[in-house]
Amino acid sequence: MKSIHQRIWVAALPFQAKRDDEGHAEVTLAYAIRLLELEQGDADVVIPAIILHDTGWSSLSREERMSIFASTATAENKRAVRLRHEEAGAEIAATILSAQGYPARLTEEIVEIISGHDTRPGFLSQNDGLTRDADKLWRFSATGFEADVARYAIPPQTRITALADLICKPDFFYCESARHIAREELALRNQGLEPVPDDTTHAFGVVPPSVPAP
């Protein structure tokens, strides 16, 4: 990654992994880089957007941010919580990008993507679509799958069925490349296999900026 993106990564670290989803930033970043290679989006928008997209969860209490996984949570309540995290994330992203001297034009697009990445119907642009596809692919990864089975307290096969339905859901994914990756990952989950023995990000040749490359 570019040095400016590495600095954004480091600045965002204190705001990451607030929902028992350790590795979310690393995994979604890896998917974003892979999608950029396949779809030719703007890395100067997509990379910062995916790094910063979930920082807003840090502004909510643990009770709030984990409430969406409760079996009793209504769609209305889930949306309200997600909207709060999007709003907070947009503010955090704007602050971090400003502190790094990131170009205003790019910052504006990144903040707009983050402000609706979980709740906005449709896609604003290719950059928006690729960012959100990378985020959605998390749930298909080995790390994300295990996290969701634990957080929702459901059998693995139940989760596999739900994920299969999402792949077929109209407008869930922006691009066919993401659907293809999702099918590949789901096949591995269904077989009880791991794409790599330890770190999903290494499967795509990506090492988090905070970790020295081997």
Automatic annotation (TrEMBL):
Q: Which SUPFAM superfamilies match?
A: HD-domain/PDEase-like (SSF109604)
On the tree of life, the source organism's domain of life is Bacteria
Q: What is this protein called?
A: HD domain-containing protein
Q: Tell me what organism the protein belongs to.
A: Pseudodesulfovibrio cashew
